[in-house]
Each structure stands twice: as structure tokens, then as C-alpha cells.
Amino acid sequence: MAISTLEKPKRGKEPINWRYTFRQMRKQWSAYLFLSPWFIIFAIFTLFSVGFSFYLSFREWNILEPAKPFVGLDNYIRLFQDAQFYQSLRNTLLFTGFGVPLGMASALLVALLLNTKVHGQSLFRTLYYIPVITPLVVSAVIWKWMYQGDYGLINYYLLKLGLIHEKLLWLADPNLAMPALIVMGVWMGTGGTMVMYLAGLQAIPEELYDAAKVDGANGFQRMMYVTIPLLAPTTFYVLITSIIFSFQSFAHIYIMTNGGPLGRTTVIGYYMYQTGFRHFEMGYASAIAYILFAIIFVLTMLQMKFVKGDVQY
User: Fold this and answer.
1) With CB atoms 3.0 to 4.6 Å apart as the test, which of 165, 200, 214, 306 could cross-link to 234 if both were Cys?
2) Cis before residue 179, ω within 30 degrees of 0?
3) Average pLDDT for the chain
4) Which among 283, 273, 293, 294 has a CA at the least distance from the CA of 75?
């Protein structure tokens, strides 16, 4: 049988020409020179730190003790027998399970409102984005003052409106501390997610909305059958990143509740800090860090498997 002239012979994978690669790198030495400070910082504070923490996770590494014996998998075995770790995991799942959906819903609502042509649109977008650029420590201190039981603004206005009849100890009540942190987290993360949703909304062609109007679709139907399906890639990305950031939460919990009351706000990140820098058990804290990495990795892979298949790009 004659071979068609349009068909090209298949080529195997060509080996990398390292000599040519290094020659091209030498030509661009000035660019690598300017990039070298960042590479050095990344190598020392990221690559080396990750590798060294993995090494520590197999040792009983107490800062105050001179002996640092190799213990193998004992730190990981101890972790799965630790009731405090399971409590911190439950707290983290609770914080993530409520905070992420609420944050995504509020960001989408704000993005839909700010995507319309209203007077002062740029000002409103800036105001909603201010929490993102505000230092986390500053935001946590402000919210801690607002939640204060005796003179906090939240209790003051709730009492004025008659919604409560006595002052609430928001950060000292075991039943209110976690919801208070979730509300603060939603406020803090809405601006960044809003920007992503705005970018996704502005990428949707107006012709699709016009066609839906011609077919008789009302505003709710246009949102359900045009906006939300075409925002699926953005929602997928926001979902993954929000869960990752939520599992890594630490600073505002440390400042506002210090893990209390009664350990109700001790998430994995705070428990890891407490183990390493208060009890000085760096080996055990490193094992917690790698278990946290494994949990985030598994959750991300599950989302990639079960959610990404329904996302149309």
C-alpha cells in the first residue's frame, strides 16, 4: 500500500541537547544574575527548609535537648494516636467547610453587583479589595477589638438594634469563637476572590446574554444557564486555592483566640506551631506539617478528579 505524502513519519522523543542549553544560558547570563537573589532565597528558605523538615520528622528533635535520636516512623504513629491532633483536624474541617462556601458565595454576589454599570464602580471595587492588602495582623487586631465583649462595636450595635439583650463574649464563648473567626475569614478573603470572579464575568461574551434575552430568559435564568456554567473554570480554581489557604490558617487565630477557648479554634496550623515553638518538639511538629501537606494534596487530587471533569474550558 502506498503511503500518503501528507503523512509525516513519527519521530521518537529527541534527547535534550544539554550543550546547546548551557550555551543559551551563558548568552543570557545577565538575566540569571538579576534572578539569582530570588533563587538563593528560594533555595534556602523553601527548598532547604522543606527538605530539612522532612529529615526532622524522623527524629526526636527537641530544641532544649542535646540528643536528637532517630526514631523512624514513631512521630507519625504518635500523630495518629493523638486526640489533640484529631480535634485540630475537626476544627480545621469545620472552619473550611463553612468558611470556603460562604466566602465564595459572598465574593460571587459582590462580583455580580460590581460588574454592573453603577456610579462609583471603581470606588466600590477598591473598598472591597482593601481587606486583601491590609496586613493580616492589623485586620486581626481590629476584629478582636470589634468582638470585645464589654466595649466592642459588634455588641454595641446589636444591643442598640435590640437583636441581643446581653453582651456576648464572642471570642471567649466555645460556641461563638469559631463562627466569629469564620465571619472574619469571609470578610478577609472576599476581595481577592471577587477580583477573580470579576475577571471571569468580563470574559463572558455579551452576545450570549443577548441571545438568552431573545429566547425569553429572565435575569435569574441568564445567571443560572449562562453566567454560572461559564464561570466554572474560575470557580474550580477558587475552590482549590480557598481550601488550601483555609487549611493553612494560623495568624488571625493566633492573635484573636490563641487556639481557645477550650481548644475550639485550635486548627492544624496552630497546633503545629504550638507543638514546635511552645513544646519545642520540632520533630513531631514536622510530622504534623507533612501530614497537613498530605491532606491538602489528597483533597486537591479528589477535586481534580471529581470536579474538573464537569468543567468546560
Assistant:
1) 200
2) no
3) 88
4) 283
Cα–Cα separations (whole angstroms), residue 306 to 65, 67, 94, 229, 302? 47, 47, 21, 16, 6
Here the cell at position 84 is 489533640
Contacts of 142 (CB under 8 A, 6+ apart): none
Cα–Cα distance for residue pair 146/140, rounded to 1 Å? 10
Cβ distance 132 to 215 under 8 Å?
A: no
pLDDT of 270 strictly over 80: yes
Give one word for 101, left, alpha or beta, with left for phi > 0 and alpha for psi -120 to 50: alpha
SS3 call for 62: strand
pTM for the model: 0.85
Evaluate whether 266 touches 91 at the Cβ level (below 8 Å): yes
Q: Residue 31: what pLDDT?
A: 81
Domains of the chain, first to last: 74-310 (1.10.3720.10)
Q: Region of 72 please: left (phi>0), alpha (psi -120 to 50) or beta.
A: left
How high is the pLDDT of residue 118? 76
Mean pLDDT of 199-218: 90
What torsion, rounded to 10 degrees, do the Cα atoms 213, 219, 221, 224 define? 120
Of 84, 81, 78, 101, nearest to 264 by C-alpha is 84
- Estimate to the nearest angstrom the gap between the alpha carbon of 78 and the chain centroid: 27
The cell for 145 is 477589638
pLDDT at 24 over 90: no
